[in-house]
Structures are given as structure tokens and as C-alpha cells.
């Protein structure tokens, strides 16, 4: 930014100073570093016109009481910068007037803003859109150049003058988009009913002026028109075009090329230092002269190509003064006041529109002078000042005349090359001179024989020789005719037969097969330890596609909502489509034209895994980098095949159209059928993959460079496993994303891939190159494939082999995990079984585990044991409840340890009571008495060393009773089931215990008799005892077992000391502690 003020001491300040000098602040919006517009309106080449205009203002005594201050912003023809800087100039810098910007898109935005702030605005440069002519919207804006609509009217007037009723429009679009606005205004003027006799039969935006692009475009244009309207943003593109025209041999009298421009150069171009000696009165040299540092030596070829072309442009001859002197002054004055740009290059050539900047500054002084003459306070009223701009004056750009809408009245000239190949100007009424290089005859808008040369009948050569030949060779001719007719008939029949191959009747398409045939197909994919199974039903329909069965095979039908009638060329393309066959291109099966749902349906082979979007939506699928690169490689191979086929481009590449079959192979679908697809109205979501240059030009369906852009968007989806642009995480809608991509600018709207650390950075840079805004910077598919080989190791490896290796690894890890889980299960089962065996007899527990019923069972001979703690109530009164629990836990843990050494089943404990039995459920013959007897002696012996922790002086004594007899045993209850004993034997054993004495083993006669069968046991008769419920019974004491335990055997007690003091399973499981 430059902020400069005019020095008050110089003569330029005011040659007629007044007592009060006011300062006007002028805001300037100009480009400097934008190469597309620098030569047209760049600061270094144009700003010098400002001090020249100030000189003129002082000379004509305009605004004598005012000085000028200038504030410069380098907006670079960028819409965002222009809008932001204009607001900053108005609100912060408080400028009184705004001059610029110099490009149409920026001018449209700024014009609306200045209308809001009521700031006078003067436009110059490449501002050609007729939209700026609306004074209701752009109420404070005055434009120094005429708009493209006036150029369009001049062009159509020329067409009407020579009865040309049709033409084609071709243009090369660059960043400043001048030609696009010219084309838009031309279309708008043609739609006017008063000029409806002229039609535009073909229009094409060429991505560049390369020979290949021009050849392809002209091959099509030549089939539509002979009058070719052209627009170029620079002279290099214009020269390249006519070089190609010369090489193609299209520089004939049959064609007329009309160049449309608003720079005032006509067939000339701005001269560089080394060609200034060739300039004419306008300071230009012919455009066909190569002014580059390394000329190609083809100036003559370029001139031959343009020999029959004309130009319609602003009249350059209206400029006043010495043009060369003015241009030199512009370059010199930029280094002085008010800019002092010492780094500006003095060898530059003045900008094309520098004269218009001079006139914009001078017009502002004129308008303001008239405004303040009525009221000095209105010097900032933009609308009032704009109304005063309807003036006429002689400016640097010629005579400046404005109409009632404040639009400059332009004078257009028709220019061409005369017979001497010199540039000449044609005035109204000089039609004969225009065509003198064509023999005085204008070309025909439509050739006599038509564009395809089929309108002229063949002439019959009637000579005696022919008549004689026909008469003598009549038979041969007849045979020849028959053969020819037969050949044509056979060819027609063959075409009909081939057409039947791609024609599919709607009757043959079935939505649902019978159930027995299977209306579903299933597929599965193994990812880690997770198995995903998905069923695809052939019943889905949408606005754009439907699923059917053709025969027994599922197919996909793409719907085309158009009423376009297919011709023979379309039929030929269908046959070619049917012949396309590649492992990465989905098979086209045919076209259905009698559908009840839409006009046409294209039928494609069905891929079981769906599209890439379907694959990405399944989070269970594991994809490593090799897997993703394999998918990308398949897409590239499919694109390469299509680009080398007759199609030349896909034109509709999205992740929806990248289908995946059961072998994880990507197949590109929905290609070709351009005539049918052009009429389809696509929602914004379908346009997220469309290249920006295709979004801007609806007439172009696709290109190979556009496919590369779409490929980059699909790559971003594969790399991030998220939909295009990840709209769920962005504030913009689909329509807003499409608008931002179409608009372009410095900050491009593209998917975010910067944080993908699992990809090679070189590949990420490759993807960015593929979606470059500049079409020329995008690599071709072949270049991408070569770079992929260097970026991705083993890029030719087979994906299925990789998938099988992944699945083998998953199977191995799964097997190990299963084995580990089985071991854990077995461990837990052992714990649960051990716990269950502690609660139930093993035989009973096994039956319960097998869900078998446990029937009550009678046992003829068992021995039942009862015991309780002597004076337990007294001991309990001296203990807290927790101490009581701890006492019993320690005592019964010791007893449980002893039971484990005998064939005894512990039935239950009730308080201080202990109930055991031997002989059930496992029958052990008569040994049940010895098991109970040995256990009882061991209980008594263990008490010799048992101590109560909190009452160490006290000892514990128990009473023991046993009886031998029959019992019934069974499981009782469902919740907390118990294995219980029933019978008189249990009662008698209980009476033996209750009538026993401390540390004594009391036994009935039946028990006594049973134990006597085994040697080594000593018993002693107690005599007759009155037993409650039994009467008088003789009972016995079990004293000892020889060579074993007795009730006071200390030695045996020491041997069992370790066993009975060890914490038992019961204690471990329930963790009962003091």
C-alpha cells in the first residue's frame, strides 16, 4: 500500500492557490503482481497516468482550491481482496472517491459496496460486463470503457450486414475471465427477439491454445459453422490459434474468423523494446509477430493463418496526442510524485488501459467541479457526483461521450489484412474492400453442400465414351450394382444385428426373482477378529438408478431423464461402448429405451460390494495403506484405458461410480453416453467431484484433465475414509462448496488431507497437483502411474494375495485368542466345580450340572455324626458377634481339613452344631463306621492345641454322638438347594450327641456293633441311659484306636497340627477374618 500526499510547495499543488486549500483523498484499487492482468492495468505500467491527469486538471483550472492525497491498495483483481480493501478505504482511510478495480468480477462486488456507502466510483480496465450498466444497482459507479454488450451489438450488426445467420464462438479462458463475460453478453444480446435471426450453433471454452486442443475443437466447430467468432485474453493464444489453423489448412475462403476484443488493438499487439521500430500510428505491431525472447520463426505461418480474419474492437484511432509520447510519460511519471516507485521497471511498456485511468481521474475532477459549484458540501455524495458524469470531453482515450445511463458510447472498428498483408481499417459501406482478399465475395454461413458435404448430388458425366461403356458393360454394371446393394443390405442387417446386442427390452428386466431363485445375495469380509456379513437386496430404487435382474443376473440401471432422440452416430457409439472390455472398467450391457420410469436407462454389470462409498461406510473393514493404494491403482488403470479409447475421457467420475466386485477390484462405471447425460439435472452433491473449469462452462461435459481432478477428490475419500469434503464436519452446505470451487480465487476450496500421516508425503503432494486450479499444471494419468510406482513399493503386487495374507494373520491371532479363552474357561470351570463340590456331593453335583433330576434315595446302612461346642452360649457372651464368627470359622476350618482326609460328607453346620455322614451318596460298604470313628477321634485330638485368639486361656470342648442305621437322602429346594438326610437314624445320632460329655464320643449299640467288626477300636460301655424319645438305651464310649488316635493322644495331635491350622478352602472362598 502507498499513501502519498501532493507536496504543497510544488506547482502541481495549485497553480492558483486560494486562501483555503482543501484535500481530496483518492482511493486506488489496482493489480501489480497478477500476471494475467499486469500488462493490461498493472500498477507499474499504468499508475503514471494519474500525475499526467492531475497536470491536465491543473491546466484546465478544475478544482483549483483542492489538493489530492492518494491511497493505493493492490487488490490483484481478487474479489475478496477488492471487497475488503474497498471497505477499508471507505471506512478507515475515509477516501472521497474510489478509482478501480480493473476486472469485471471484482468491479461487480465493489460497485455494490460503494453504492451502499454512497461513494463515487470510477471503473477502468477489463470491466466489460453489461451487468454494470444497471444504474439502479450501481448508482455511484461510472465506467470509462464500454461494455461487452455494445461489442456484441456491433458484431451482430456486422453479421446482419452480410446476411450471416449463424456462427460458432470459441474462446480461451484465463484468470481475469474477460472472454467469459464477452461470451455471456453475446448470448444475452442474441436472445433479444429483435436479433433472433442470428444463432450461435456452437460454443466451446478451450482450456488452452495448444495445437491438440485447437485441432479437436475445430474438428467439431467445422461441422457446425463457417463463421467463427474468437476471443483471446492475450496475443500469444491468438497467434497459437492461427498457427494451428494454418497447419490444418483451414485458412481458406470458406472460413471467416472474427476476433472480438475491447483493448483497442485490433489485429495489433503491444510492442516490446526490440519491436518498437515496427509500430504503427497506434503504437502496436501485428499480433502474428513473435515477440518472445526466442522467436520460433513462424511469423509467416501465423500471418497466413490469420490472412482471412478480421477484428472488431474499440477504435484505436480516436486517441488524442502522441500515443508513444503518452506511453513513455506513463512509465516515467510512476517514479515521481505521488507514488515515488523507484523500483518500477523503466523498460516496461505502458499498460493497455493506462489512457482510461487518465480519463477516469479527469472525469472525476469534471464531475466534482460541477457538483460543488451548486453546493460545496456535496463533494462526497456519490450518487449526485455520478449524475454529473454525463459529460463529453476529449480524453487521452479519445472523445469521451456518455449516454443517459452513464455508459460510455463506444466506436468500434472492423480491421483486417489487405491484399498486401497490411492491417487496414474498414469504414461503413466498404464491404467490397473487406472481401478483396477473397475475390470480392463474402463466405457462406452454410456451405452449398452442407457442413458434411452431403447436400450436393453427384453429376453424371454424359459423354459418348461413357454411353458406350455403359452399353457394352451393362451386364457387368448390373451385377456390380447388385453386389453393392447386397453389401449395403448386409451391412445394414449387420448393424441391425449389432444394435440388437445393446438394445434391452424393459420386459426383460425383472425387479424381483421368485423366492426359490434367491432374491438376496450375501457377502462377508473378515477384518481382525470381527466378521461382517451383509445382505444386498435387489429392491432398491432412487431418482438416478434402479436394480433389476436380467435373466438370473443382477444388473444396475442408470436413469436418464431426457427426450433426446438417438441417431446413427449414437448407435455406433453404443456398439463401441459394448465392445469396451477391461478389468478395471465396469461392463456396459446395453440401453433400455422403452422404460415406464424414464426415457432411457443404461444397463451396467452389478458389483456385489457396491461403490467405494459403500465400502468406506463399513467401519469394520480394515484397510491398510497397501489396500488403499491398490484401489487407487485400479482407478488409474481404468482411467488410462478410457482415455485411450474412443471416449477420450470419463466425464462423470465419482466415488459412487467406482464399483467394487467380490475380488476387491475397482471398476469404473457410468462412462460415455454424453448426449444422454448432458440433459440430466444433477444435484449439488453430484457436482462435488466436478472440475472448476467444467462447472464454469456448462457446454463442456468433460475432459481428461477434468477426470484427473475428479480422481484427486476420490483419492481424498480413500485416504481419509470419509465422504468428499467431509460435509458432516464442515459448516458449508453442498451448494456452497460447489460455488466456492466454481469461483476459484487465491484460497481454493479442496478436501482436507494435510493430517494423513499414514501416507507418503510425496503422494499427498501428487494428489494436490491433480486438483490444481490451473489445468496445465495437472499431470496426466500416465504421469500419475509412473509417479505411483516410485512412491508406492510393490505397487504391482496382487490385492487378493494381500487380502489372503491379512486373513491368514487374522485366523492365526483368532486361534491363539480362542485357545487363551478356552484355558480361562477351563480354569473358571474348575473353580466353579470345586465350589459346587464343596456344597454338594460330587455325584449329586454332576447330575445337577447335566440337568438330570435327583430322585430321593434310601441308604440301608450309614453312620451319622453330630457334634456341638460345650458351653458355647457362655463363650459367645464373652465375644463380639464378629469374634463369634471368627471362632467358629477357625474351628470348622480345622474340622473341614480333617474331613478331607476321610470318606465323609459334611451335611451342614447349624450354629455350633456340626453334622456329617459317611456311606452316602457314595456307598462304601461297612467302612462308614470306621470313617466316622477316625474322624471323631481326630476332632477331639485337634482341640488339644486349638486356642481362641482373644481368650487364649480358654479351651474349646465338643460333645460327639454317632449312630449307625438307614436314612433317606435327597435334594430339597430350587433356590439354594441342599442335600438333606431324613430318618430316625438322624434323630438317634442327635440324641447321642446331646447326652454325650465334653470331649467324649458317644455311640449307640448299633454303632458299637458296627465298629467291633474292625479290629483296633476300644469302646467302653456307659450302661443304660434314658434317651429322650427313645427310652432306656445301652450306649458306649469310643475310647481310642490302637496304634492310632485317642481322645488324649498328644503325638497324633502334633502330626495333625499343621493340617488343622492351615487356612482351608472354605476360609479362602468366603474370606471370613477377624
TrEMBL record:
GO terms for cellular component: plasma membrane. The chain crosses the membrane at residues 465-489. One of its GO terms (molecular function) is adenylate cyclase activity. Keywords: Cell membrane, cGMP biosynthesis, Glycoprotein, GTP-binding, Lyase, Membrane, Nucleotide-binding, Receptor, Signal, Transmembrane, Transmembrane helix. It is a single-pass type I membrane protein. Pfam families: ANF_receptor, Guanylate_cyc, HNOBA, PK_Tyr_Ser-Thr. CDD domains: CHD (cd07302), PBP1_NPR_GC-like (cd06352). It is an enzyme of class 4 (lyase). It catalyses: GTP = 3',5'-cyclic GMP + diphosphate. Signal peptide: none annotated. One of its GO terms (biological process) is receptor guanylyl cyclase signaling pathway. It is found in: Cell membrane. Its EC number is 4.6.1.2. Coiled coil: none annotated. Residues 863-993 form the Guanylate cyclase domain. Belongs to the adenylyl cyclase class-4/guanylyl cyclase family. PANTHER family: GUANYLYL CYCLASE, RECEPTOR-TYPE GUANYLATE CYCLASE GCY-7. This is Guanylate cyclase. It comes from Steinernema hermaphroditum.
